[in-house]
Structure to design on (229 residues):
């Protein structure tokens, strides 16, 4: 099986002073200031586009709803086609997760994960059972830059609680559909492994990770957010 590898994260190392800081963003942050109403990526492997990741933000009277869809179709060894679909709908209020529902079709293997706020805890319903964790634990997302402060994530594909570590490195230029921009890489290790990039405003602009066959997959952002003010 080709397999889809979800990104990893943990306690953030000190970042360069000009890099996006989750701590600076916590009180006033909302997705509409960074992205407008949508965020769109192409997914590439070995020089070919193999999928897309589209995110839509919708304002509510209290908070917002985020709909995310990852779709991939990968020809493996010219023999068979690996298909992957992962969809999530999440509801946020005051920067905290209230509810999330995720469904995954991993080449025919289907799973479902739900997260509900229960008082001052989150309850996770996963294929492996039901458990609870701290209220401020994040799901495995990257559009919210506050994820950089996390030491563990709720994996939205498996429902497991993943221990993570993150370190920031020097900025570099990142290719997007509208040109190259300066962005800061963050390397994730632990139960998940990947590298993500954010621009100076805290916008998520790229990720790379390995597929189950060891090949690298990477995102190219088509819509990276509203223009800087």
């Amino acid at each position: 099986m080709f397999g889809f590898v979800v990104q990893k994260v943990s306690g953030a190392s000190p970042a360069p002073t000009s890099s996006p800081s989750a701590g600076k963003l916590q009180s006033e942050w909302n997705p509409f200031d960074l992205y407008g109403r949508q965020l769109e990526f192409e997914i590439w492997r070995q020089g070919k586009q193999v999928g897309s990741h589209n995110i839509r933000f919708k304002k509510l009277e209290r908070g917002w709803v985020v709909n995310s869809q990852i779709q991939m179709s990968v020809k493996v060894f010219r023999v068979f086609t690996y298909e992957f679909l992962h969809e999530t709908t999440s509801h946020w209020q005051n920067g905290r997760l209230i509810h999330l529902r995720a469904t995954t079709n991993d080449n025919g293997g289907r799973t479902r994960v739900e997260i509900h706020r229960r008082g001052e805890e989150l309850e996770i319903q996963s294929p492996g059972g039901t458990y609870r964790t701290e209220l401020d634990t994040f799901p495995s997302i990257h559009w919210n830059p506050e994820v950089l402060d996390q030491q563990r994530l709720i994996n939205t594909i498996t429902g497991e609680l993943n221990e993570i570590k993150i370190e920031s490195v020097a900025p570099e230029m990142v290719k997007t559909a509208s040109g190259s921009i300066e962005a800061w890489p963050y390397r994730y290790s632990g139960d998940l492994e990947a590298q993500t990039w954010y621009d100076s405003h805290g916008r998520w602009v790229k990720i790379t990770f390995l597929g189950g066959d060891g090949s690298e997959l990477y995102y190219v952002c088509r819509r990276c957010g509203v223009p800087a003010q």
Summary: Confidence is low (pLDDT under 50) at residues 1-18, 22-27.
